[in-house]
């Protein structure tokens, strides 16, 4: 797991529907601890596996006092709604007001393979919805009005250009090794 780095806007993995996890073993547990490390290093409060380049339906959410680790999470029920401006580690300096359910019922597997189900509300419920969106290739910018999209255009292009540059460098690094 050497190539785990934070993926930003423009990286194709952020637009993919992530794959359902079919087994929970040491690889998945390793991934969870890498995710926690990268999230904390970047002062995040939630992270989805595709955001570090891994095609798996796994998210972590930092609720106050507890780090939730959710594998194959599904939102079963939603209640209420509330607008709040959201940011995203994959979209630095971009903020978009997003209308989300206030209260949700979640079902997922935990790292011990146990099926868990719980109801959660408030800010953590919002973060879970944001992370589950990532598993479906959805980003906060998709909720922006046309006017806001126009205003964000240049910033988004800058992030995407930087992402392209990094991906290109990684590709070339691979080629060089091939010819050695
Ligand atoms: Zn995000």
Automatic annotation (TrEMBL):
Catalytic residues (UniProt): 131
Keywords assigned: Hydrolase, Iron, Metal-binding, Protein biosynthesis
Reactions accelerated catalytically: N-terminal N-formyl-L-methionyl-[peptide] + H2O = N-terminal L-methionyl-[peptide] + formate
GO terms, biological process: translation
Residues the record lists as binding Fe cation: 88, 130, 134
Cofactor detail note: Binds 1 Fe(2+) ion.
The keyword Chloroplast is annotated on this UniProt entry: no
EC number: 3.5.1.88
An annotated Gene Ontology molecular function: peptide deformylase activity
Cofactor(s) this protein requires: Fe(2+)
Pfam families: Pep_deformylase
Domain of life according to the entry: Bacteria
Biological role: Removes the formyl group from the N-terminal Met of newly synthesized proteins. Requires at least a dipeptide for an efficient rate of reaction. N-terminal L-methionine is a prerequisite for activity but the enzyme has broad specificity at other positions.
Listed HAMAP family: Pep_deformylase
Family: Belongs to the polypeptide deformylase family.
Protein name, as recorded: Peptide deformylase
Provenance organism: Aerophobetes bacterium
Protein's gene: def
């Amino acid at each position: 797991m050497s190539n785990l780095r934070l993926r930003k806007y423009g990286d194709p993995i952020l637009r993919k529907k992530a794959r359902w996890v079919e087994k929970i073993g040491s690889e998945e547990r390793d991934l969870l601890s890498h995710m926690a490390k990268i999230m904390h290093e970047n002062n995040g409060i939630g992270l989805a596996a595709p955001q570090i380049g891994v095609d798996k339906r796994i998210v972590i959410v930092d609720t106050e006092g507890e780090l939730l680790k959710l594998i194959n999470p599904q939102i079963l029920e939603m209640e209420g709604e509330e607008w709040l401006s959201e940011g995203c580690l994959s979209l630095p300096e971009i903020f978009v007001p997003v209308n989300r359910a206030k209260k949700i019922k979640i079902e997922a597997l935990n790292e011990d393979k146990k099926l868990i189900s719980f109801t959660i509300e408030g800010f953590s419920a919002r973060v879970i919805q944001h992370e589950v969106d990532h598993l479906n290739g959805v980003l906060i910018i998709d909720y922006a009005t046309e006017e806001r999209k126009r205003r964000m255009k240049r910033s988004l292009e800058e992030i995407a250009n930087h992402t392209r540059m990094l991906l290109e460098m990684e590709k070339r690094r691979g080629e060089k090794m091939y010819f050695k």
